[in-house]
């Protein structure tokens, strides 16, 4: 077994500290099976201890599905997130709880969030007297109900523990359908919760932003911040070229046949240079086109906005049967089956509202 699973530079990554925290939670629940964990992650438990390790998001999310199965607890994310353990917070957590105020901590949390989870985009805004955090996955396939539950619970429980016990949410909007354990959200967050929303948002009073952080250590803050800034700088130089090519592919996909020569000219280089630049990032041009098609296909089919034949055309397939074969290769099911399953999940959530 490899110590670290193979990945391409465009694979969104999650801090191994998050994966290790879940493993520790399963251990505390008495259901840890090391062999099964190593099979799912493709790495040893010893390898997960590496503080610099980053795990592919897909693997991290598969482990959450396993955690729900082995614990028999559909709310496992919500419950795991309520465990406050300073030793398992990761570098960003130590930056957060050594800032001067909650407002500064939130700013750092948003800035450094890619070090925690690259597959989810975190943003922050202030509207009137409310401060709002928004989590949005970079693609539909990267939304994990259990991990989002853990994120919300951990954000609030850790803030109450380290900063002020009276902090609560004014309201929350959750992207997944209403689950069976829905009543637990309001008990935990403190405000009304709406399910089945476009994105996940958590609002709290802006007055909390001025709360000082009681036990901050400026020396720890300075040392850890230097370390995470270095990690972030390395992350931001990664995949820059392939991201540009992905945007060009996405733009060209629905209007004409994807052509490497045309894209190379748009990048002001030869096709050979295009291939060489992508190879440096561990990618081939074909792989990139396939990734963009897959991401768009999952989004279009789940949304039920276009007929399947229209989606095939928008993605550059010559006929519906070719699109159906590709979709089954990506997901293990036919497009119609994927759409029906997605729609039935939404309907079930609406019936419980």
The proportion of residues forming helix, as a percent range, comes to: 40-55%
Order of adjacent strands in the largest pleated sheet: 3-4-7-5-6
Beta strand count:
7
Put simply, the count of helices is: 16
Largest sheet: 5 strands, mixed
Structural class: alpha+beta
Instruction: Report how far apart the termini are.
Output: 46 Å
Rounded radius of gyration (Å) = 22 Å
The secondary-structure element order is EHHEHHHHEEHEHEEHHHHHHHH
The average pLDDT value, as a whole number, equals: 85
Low-confidence stretches: 1-9, 347-353
- Taken from the alpha-carbon principal axes, the silhouette is globular
Strand content: 5-15%
Structural summary, described in words:
This protein has 353 residues and is of the alpha+beta class. It is built from 16 helices and seven strands. The protein has a five-stranded mixed sheet with strand order 3-4-7-5-6. Strands 1-2 form a two-stranded antiparallel sheet. Helix 5 packs across helix 9 (218-236) and helix 10 (240-253) packs across helix 13 (285-303). The longest helix has 19 residues, at 218-236. The model is unreliable at 1-9 and 347-353 (pLDDT under 50).
Features of the shown structure:
353 residues, alpha+beta, 5-stranded mixed sheet, two-stranded antiparallel ribbon, 55% helix, disordered C terminus
């Amino acid at each position: 077994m490899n110590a670290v699973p193979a990945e391409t530079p465009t694979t969104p990554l999650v801090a191994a500290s998050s994966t290790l925290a879940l493993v520790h939670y399963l251990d505390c629940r008495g259901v840890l099976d090391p062999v099964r964990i190593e099979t799912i992650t493709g790495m040893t438990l010893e390898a997960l201890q590496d503080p610099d390790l980053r795990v592919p998001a897909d693997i991290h999310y598969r482990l959450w599905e396993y955690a729900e199965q082995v614990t028999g607890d559909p709310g496992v994310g919500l419950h795991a997130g309520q465990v406050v353990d300073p030793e398992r917070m990761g570098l960003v957590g130590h930056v957060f709880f050594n800032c001067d105020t909650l407002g500064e901590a939130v700013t750092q949390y948003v800035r450094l969030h890619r070090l925690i989870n690259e597959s989810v985009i975190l943003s922050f805004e202030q509207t009137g007297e409310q401060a709002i955090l928004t989590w949005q996955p970079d693609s539909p396939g990267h939304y994990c109900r259990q991990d989002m539950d853990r994120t919300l619970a951990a954000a609030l429980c850790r803030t109450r523990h380290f900063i002020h016990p009276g902090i609560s949410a004014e309201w929350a909007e959750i992207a997944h359908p209403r689950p069976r354990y829905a009543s637990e959200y309001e008990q935990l967050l403190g405000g009304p919760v709406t399910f089945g929303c476009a994105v996940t948002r958590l609002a709290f009073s802006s007055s909390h932003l001025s709360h000082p952080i009681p036990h901050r250590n400026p020396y720890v803050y300075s040392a850890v911040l230097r370390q995470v800034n270095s990690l972030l700088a390395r992350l931001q130089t990664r995949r820059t070229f392939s991201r540009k090519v992905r945007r060009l592919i996405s733009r060209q996909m629905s209007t004409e046949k994807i052509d490497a020569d045309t894209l190379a000219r748009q990048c002001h280089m030869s096709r050979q240079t295009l291939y060489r630049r992508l190879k440096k990032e561990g990618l081939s041009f074909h792989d990139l086109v396939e990734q963009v098609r897959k991401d768009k296909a999952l989004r279009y089919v789940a949304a039920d906005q276009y007929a399947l034949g229209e989606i095939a055309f928008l993605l550059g397939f010559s006929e519906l049967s070719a699109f159906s074969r590709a979709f089954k290769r990506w997901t293990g099911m036919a497009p119609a089956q994927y759409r029906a399953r997605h729609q039935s999940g939404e309907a079930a959530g609406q019936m419980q509202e």
